[in-house]
Amino acid sequence: YYLVCTDGSKGSNDPETLTDRLIATRRQEQREAARLLGVKEVFFLDYVDGEVTYSRELVRDIVRYIRLIRPDAVFTHEPGQIIANRAINHPDHRAVGEATLDAVYPMARTRPAYPELVAEGLEPHRVSDVYLWSSGDPNFSVDITDVLELKVQALLCHRSQIREPERLLENLRQRLRGEDGRYHERFRHIQLAF
Questions:
Q1: What does the alpha-carbon distance between residue 164 and residue 57 come to, in Å, rounded to a whole number?
Q2: What secondary structure, in 3-state letters, does 9-22 show?
Q3: 147-156 long-range Cβ contacts below 8 angstroms, 24+ apart
Q4: DSSP per residue, the chain
Q5: Domain ranges of the chain
C-alpha cells in the first residue's frame, strides 16, 4: 500500500500547467508506478503540495490508514534529514516523516488518542518496524540489483517530475551502487520493541 500525503499541485514550473490537470496527472503517474511495482492500493490525503506542516490532523489522517491497513512495517521519510543525497529534503517530506513517526508510536496503538477513529471501527494497531529513507544514518541495506530496472521503470512513470531522465538515472545508479558493484537501498531501521 502507498499513502500519498500531498496533492502534487505545485510540482511544475511550467506556466501552461493547470493545477487541476497537474493533480490528475500526478495521481495517474503514482498509480501507474504503483501498479508496475505490484502495490495493492494507493491512498491520497490531498494536503496542498508545498504547504504540509506537522499537525494533529496530519497525524490523525496517517493513523487512520495505519489502523485501516494494519501493516507490520511502515516506510517513510527521515524527518530530521535536511540535506539528503546532495539535495535539500523537501519540507513536506520532513513534516510527513515526523507525523508518520508519531502516528506509528504512540498514536496508532493508543485507543484514546483518536476516539473518532475507534467510532469508525478503526481499532488500535501496533507497527513492528519503521524504515526511514534518505537517512544520514542508515543501518539497514537491501540488495536491489535484481529489481533495479523495475525501480527505474517505476520512477520513469513520474514523467511530469523528470526533466532530465538520463541524468536522474545515472545519479540514482551512482548513489545506489555499493562497493561490491551491486545496488542497495539503504534505510534507517527502527524495530519497535514494545
A1: 36
A2: CCCCCCCCCCHHHH
A3: 148/173, 148/176, 148/183, 150/36, 150/37, 153/36, 154/33, 154/34, 154/36, 154/37, 155/33
A4: -EEEEE--TT----TT--HHHHHHHHHHHHHHHHHHHT-S-EEEEEEPTT-----HHHHHHHHHHHHHH--SEEEEE-TT-SEETTEEPPHHHHHHHHHHHHHHTTGGG-GGG-HHHHHTT-------EEEEES-SS--EEEE-GGGHHHHHHHHHT-GGG-S-HHHHHHHHHHHHB-TTSSBEEEEEEEE---
A5: 2-191
Buried b (16+ CB within 10 A) or exposed e, 88-127: ebbebbbbbbbbbbbbbeebbbeeebbeebeeeebebbeb
Q: Pick out the chain residues at pLDDT < 50.
A: none
Q: Count CB-CB contacts under 10 A for residue 31.
A: 17
The number of beta carbons lying within 10 Å of the beta carbon of residue 37 is 14
The CATH classification number of 2-191 equals 3.40.50.10320
Closest CA to 68 of 126, 127, 125, 110: 125
**Who contacts 166 (Cβ-Cβ below 8 Å, separation ≥6)?**
none
pLDDT of residue 81: 86
Count CB atoms within 10 A of the CB of residue 168.
16
